[in-house]
Amino acid sequence: MKSIELFAGIGGVSLAAEWAGIETVAFCEREPFCQKVLQKHWPDVPIFDDVKTFNKQALIDGGVDVGTIDIISGGFPCQPYSIAGKRRGTEDDRDLWPEMFRIIEEIRPIWVVGENVANFVNMELDRTLSDLESIGYTGGAFVIPAAGVGAKHKRERTFIVAYSNDSRCVHRQAEKQSAERGEHAQCEPITICANVADTNCERCMEYERQQEEIQQGGNQELQREEGEKSFLQQFIYSCNEIMADSSCKGLSGSKDTGKTKRKGTQPEQQSARRYPGGDYWAIEPDVGRVANGVSDRVDRIRGLGNAVVPQQIYPIFKAIKMIHEEMI
């Protein structure tokens, strides 16, 4: 799978995607210090510096094969929605979701992953999901705290996940299946039941009943809706399974994806520092308030403060990757 990351910062989202086996093929980030960090860790990935001028043609001109992009991700600026600010929402000129939506509408990836502060749910989540639904995506939101993946602080973040079973997806799967079986094939909804041995499973029985209706009635609209619903349900199921699995390799031991491992950034090193629920840092932890001789100190602090904790978003990318592999 391939992804582009908007509002990339220092690459926390792309690091999590890499752990899940997803390749980032382009960044969009305007801050010079963050660009240096991205260039250091992803030297072969092009960086575009202005989301307002970034578009499909810019990617093509930059040598990116737009047709291979499966995911658009981005932590669009949180200042318009954060409880630490004035919460002006759409009246704030830093409200850049419309720019991200414009890019999504133009490129039409299969998956969309957005990130923002927890209070985003109370302000603009409905607008975001409505925008995505207007162009054929089925979406939902999750609020995941950093404490949920072993950090000693809450840092709750909203993650928006949307999926589109559009013609590009159907075309890709049909091509693969036709090559394997020598005949035309189309996408089919995927059952999400894990207990395949239970013949009395109500979920499975309902799924089979719906499939019979689709096949007998030939209702293409129902088939599309059920397919999208099935994928979203499977995503939630997969994501919950990963979050609940303390032995999951992505959180307790990384899988070698063939790329250079960055010292001190692998999931297993971070997850080793686990704390009991509610045992967070003090408001003013005794970590020292002076840092002498640290280059770019202010830029480093801002970059870290704006960054996504990779372990928070990793289960989402892992679930997407699992579902994608089942699709093909």
What does this structure look like?
The chain is α/β, with parallel strands linked by helices. It has a domain at 2-170 and 234-253 and 304-327: 3-Layer(aba) Sandwich (Rossmann fold), CATH 3.40.50.150. 43% of the residues lie in helices and 12% in strands. It has 13 helices and seven strands. It has helices spanning 12-19, 32-41, 56-61, 97-107, 120-123, 125-134, 167-181, 202-217, 220-244, 249-252, 267-271, 297-306, 310-327; strands at residues 2-6, 23-28, 47-48, 71-74, 111-117, 138-144, 157-163. The chain has a seven-stranded mixed sheet with strand order 3-2-1-4-5-7-6, sandwiched between helices. Strand 2, helix 2 and strand 3 (47-48) form a beta-alpha-beta unit.
Largest sheet: 7 strands, mixed
If you consult CATH, what is the topology of the domain at 2-170 and 234-253 and 304-327? Rossmann fold
The share of residues in helices is 40-55%
C-alpha-based Rg, rounded: 21 Å
Structure classification: alpha/beta
Largest sheet, order of strands side by side?
A: 3-2-1-4-5-7-6
Number of strands: 7
What number is the mean pLDDT? 76
CATH superfamily of the domain at 2-170 and 234-253 and 304-327: Vaccinia Virus protein VP39
Mind telling me the CATH class of the domain at 2-170 and 234-253 and 304-327?
Alpha Beta
Taking pLDDT < 50 over at least 5 consecutive residues as the criterion, the unreliable ranges are: 169-197, 246-261, 263-277
Number of helical segments with 4 or more residues = 13
3D shape: globular
